[in-house]
Amino acid sequence: MKTHEFLSLLKENPNKNLLFEYKPGALVGANYHITEVKNITIDAVDCGASTDFWKETIIQLWESPEEIGKRDYMSADKALAILNRVDKIKPMEKDVEVKFEYSNTSFHTAQLFVNAHQVAGENLVFHLGVEQTDCKAKETCGEPVAASAQETSNCAPGSGCC
User: Fold this and answer.
1) How far apart are CA 22 and CA 29, in angstroms?
2) CA atoms within 13 A on the CB side of 117
């Protein structure tokens, strides 16, 4: 999901509770805060020596230990106000992927993609998830293009590939 799409959904659903499902059946607690917005630039070289360049927006969610047990979620309108304030200070790239950085005591810190969203009653829910790592230079490494990172056997450290 692009940053502008996320912002548009917040604007279209101002009175909805803003919920984030970080793994199936598990929601970020109602005690979350938006603690950081990052404009990230990636300037990379893959295992096949190809270069790549892209940008992302990363919104960090943090659960306040002082507000454990809080039941009222942040509204989409409040989140939009926070992000608009950030945008005035440090403009966000709008046509780039938006990710959410999150962790808790039982979930490692991860940058999560938006896999889906839904309006469910009074809630605007974003379903987040991780993407598996993958060899980006399969043709160079002689790997079948359809193979996943977990199925790959030839693209191992020391193989001259990945």
Assistant:
1) 10
2) 20
